[in-house]
């Protein structure tokens, strides 16, 4: 039963993703999405799901949705504003540095979410991940500190908190 629930859940996510991002509600589009979602679910579920999905995972899904909106509305806007300020100022005031940023997330999915969030945020880019030392090396366009703990507070703490709620 759990395996069936896992496949149904993955199918619904894939199909919902397809419908939202294609924006099409024509019959042909919906049927094509249905067929594509069944095929993707059949072949990829065993590769992308490391454990069976349970009903408790719905809470994690809501954390993911909340994180997405928070990231897009707050973190992205603040980072874009900072980069715009740097670019438009008469004297370019940058302090580029590659800083060590320790992380506490335990899963590969969590590390990927944190690293991706940092990289997608203007002004920062993860250039290396050291899983043994649990450190991200981040190129920071306006480094306010090189202290790893302080850098974590400024760069990745919020991302990590959500990653742990979403992926454990």
From TrEMBL:
It comes from the Archaea. It is found in: Cell membrane. The lineage of its organism: Archaea, Thermoproteota, Thermoprotei, Desulfurococcales, Desulfurococcaceae. GO terms for cellular component: plasma membrane. PANTHER family: NA(+)/H(+) ANTIPORTER SUBUNIT E1, NA(+)_H(+) ANTIPORTER SUBUNIT E1. Its main location: membrane. The keyword Membrane applies. It is a multi-pass membrane protein. This is Na+/H+ antiporter subunit E. The chain crosses the membrane at residues 7-25, 31-49. Keywords: Cell membrane, Membrane, Transmembrane, Transmembrane helix.
């Amino acid at each position: 039963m759990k395996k069936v629930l896992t496949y149904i859940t993955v199918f619904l996510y894939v199909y919902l993703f397809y419908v939202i991002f294609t924006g099409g509600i024509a019959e042909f589009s919906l049927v094509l999405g249905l067929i594509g979602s069944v095929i993707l679910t059949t072949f990829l579920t065993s590769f992308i799901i490391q454990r069976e999905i349970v009903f408790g995972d719905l809470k994690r899904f809501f954390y993911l949705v909340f994180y997405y909106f928070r990231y897009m509305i707050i973190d992205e806007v603040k980072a874009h504003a900072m980069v715009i300020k740097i670019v438009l100022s008469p004297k370019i005031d940058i302090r580029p540095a590659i800083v060590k940023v320790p992380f506490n997330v335990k899963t590969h999915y969590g590390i990927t979410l944190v690293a991706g969030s940092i990289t997608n945020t203007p002004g920062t880019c993860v250039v290396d991940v050291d899983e043994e030392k649990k450190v991200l090396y981040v190129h920071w366009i306006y480094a306010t500190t090189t202290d790893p703990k302080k850098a974590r507070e400024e760069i990745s703490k919020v991302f990590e908190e959500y990653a742990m709620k979403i992926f454990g």
